[in-house]
UniProtKB/TrEMBL annotation:
Belongs to the RecA family. RadA subfamily. This is DNA repair protein RadA. DNA-dependent ATPase involved in processing of recombination intermediates, plays a role in repairing DNA breaks. Stimulates the branch migration of RecA-mediated strand transfer reactions, allowing the 3' invading strand to extend heteroduplex DNA faster. Binds ssDNA in the presence of ADP but not other nucleotides, has ATPase activity that is stimulated by ssDNA and various branched DNA structures, but inhibited by SSB. Does not have RecA's homology-searching function. Plays a role in repairing double-strand DNA breaks, probably involving stabilizing or processing branched DNA or blocked replication forks. The middle region has homology to RecA with ATPase motifs including the RadA KNRFG motif, while the C-terminus is homologous to Lon protease. Keywords: ATP-binding, DNA damage, DNA repair, DNA-binding, Hydrolase, Metal-binding, Nucleotide-binding, Stress response, Zinc, Zinc-finger. SMART domains: AAA. Residues 61-210 form the RecA family profile domain. A motif (RadA KNRFG motif) lies at residues 247-251. Residues 343-457 are annotated as: Lon-protease-like. Pfam families: AAA_25, ChlI, Zn_ribbon_LapB. It comes from the Bacteria. CDD domains: RadA_SMS_N. The gene is radA. PANTHER family: DNA REPAIR PROTEIN RADA, DNA REPAIR PROTEIN RADA-LIKE PROTEIN.
């Protein structure tokens, strides 16, 4: 008798309440070892297909076909390739099923036959969602099934132009022991579906669950088997959804697709920068603009900071920013500003998460503006990384960042010294270079308070 962890695949000879490898509780289940066949020494086949010169391979078999959802095509590299298998992972409720339902609907409206397999909901529930997002189509076929054999039989019978399975953890094979979602079941289900997709040249999208840390649930082999791994992200209280390609055999992995989650479904956002800016015309202290690069896409984001006199131990509250970098920036500011005596709250507008160092300068300037209660001059964007000595360092993609800022009507910019070498500066922008953080604050018109320290004679 053998026991196996359904989360990470750890095997043990006795039952345990907690897996010693992944530290999850209640994931150890009894598993029946698969029967192994005795293999003899491999012998060459009498006849084979033969090798083909690479110049004679038909490249049209790997050409992408558009899904008619621009942001989805952007991440995939142009669309879905026949026979390609895409794994779409994301947290519960982020909108994976809604997105794929619209993908299937748009494909069906082009005259293609789409098979949507749901194992988590009933057919009636999917029908209600399809009505709400206007995704009904006569060629969009729906089946609520969890048996792998039945699903494979349906695929052979229908031979769809697009296959959607929601989700891979709900299907189970009668030939493999274990509960649905277990390591052995997920491995067998994924292998069978991928084999069917390759044999019939059917583009397939699999929905995958995620663990607490955001990684794809199940064996790591699942990510190696599929052709594309996408992560669908978004805060539950925000309308913004982002699609990232973690692995892509047919396109880039540095593209990001932006979507707007509404009551009528998910809509592509070709220009999402407006979601990350305040709507008021009044310029308030503690606000600075920056341009973040998400993959290859520059997005204008507003960083806000609020400071207050601390009655005791100073608090540091950060939302959608890297807390470690914010703490470092406050330490760099401390010789000129009393950051050690203040509660500091830093966040971005619209729920846009920024983790790249290019936002350091904007965070520092927003914090300094909040401390002295003086707003920065209007339409200013700050882009640069700050070192521990206060030096403003160059960041990649400056040309794209400045072009996006100019497109959004920004007229002033502060960047690191040397960032403009060989770059065409937008004519409507006034770009100033700063070598040190104090120089950048002086350019922005932020006065430096006098911080006195007691010194022993």
């Amino acid at each position: 008798m053998q026991y196996e962890c359904t989360a990470c695949g750890y095997k043990t000879a006795k039952w345990l309440g907690r897996c010693p490898q992944c530290r999850e509780w209640g994931t150890i289940e009894e598993s029946v070892p698969a029967h192994r066949t005795v293999r003899t020494q491999a012998k060459p086949a009498s006849q084979g297909t033969g090798a083909t010169p690479i110049t004679e391979v038909d490249r049209t078999l790997a050409e992408a076909r558009s899904t008619h959802i621009p942001e989805f095509d952007r991440v995939l590299g142009g669309g879905l390739v026949p026979g390609a298998v895409v794994l779409l992972a994301g947290e519960p409720g982020v909108g994976k099923s809604t997105l794929l339902l619209e993908v299937g609907s748009w494909t069906a409206r082009q005259g293609a036959q789409v098979l949507y397999v749901t194992g988590e909901e009933s057919a009636a529930q999917v029908r209600l969602r399809a009505e709400r997002v206007d995704a009904l189509s006569e060629t969009l076929l729906l089946t609520a099934e969890t048996d792998l054999g039945v699903v494979l039989g349906t695929i052979d019978q229908v031979k769809p132009s697009l296959l959607i399975i929601d989700s891979v953890q709900t299907l189970a094979s009668a030939d493999v022991a274990g509960a649905p979602g277990g390591v052995a079941q997920v491995r067998e289900v994924a292998a069978a579906v991928i084999r069917a997709a390759k044999d019939h040249a059917i583009p397939t999208v699999l929905v995958g669950h995620v663990t607490k840390d955001g990684s794809v649930a199940g064996p790591r082999l699942l990510e190696h088997l599929v052709d594309v791994v996408c992560s669908f992200e978004g805060e539950r209280h925000s309308r913004l959804r982002m699609l990232r390609a973690v692995k892509n055999r047919y396109g880039p992995t540095d593209e990001v697709g932006c979507f707007d989650m509404t009551e009528k479904g998910i809509e592509s956002l070709p220009d999402p920068s407006g979601l990350f800016l305040t709507r008021t015309a009044t310029k308030a202290p503690g606000s600075c603009l920056t341009v973040a690069l998400e993959g290859k896409r520059p997005m204008l984001v507003e960083v806000q900071a609020l400071t207050d006199k601390s009655p005791g131990t100073p608090r540091r509250t950060v939302s959608d920013l890297d807390s470690g970098r914010v703490a470092m920036i406050l330490a760099v500011l401390s010789p000129q500003f009393p950051t050690g005596e203040l509660d500091v709250f830093a966040a971005t507008v619209g729920g846009m998460r920024i983790s790249e160092p290019a936002s350091d300068l904007s965070v520092a300037m927003a914090t300094a503006s909040a401390i002295v209660h003086k707003p920065l001059y209007s339409r200013l964007v700050a882009i640069g990384e700050i070192s521990l000595s206060g030096e403003v360092r160059q960041v990649p993609g400056m040309g794209q960042r400045l072009s996006e800022a100019a497109r959004q009507g920004i007229t002033n910019a502060i960047v690191a010294k040397g960032s403009l070498e060989g770059l065409p500066v937008p004519p409507e922008m006034r770009v100033r270079e700063a070598e040190h953080l104090l120089e950048a604050l002086e350019i922005a018109g932020i006065p430096l308070p006098q911080v006195t320290t007691e010194q022993e004679e």
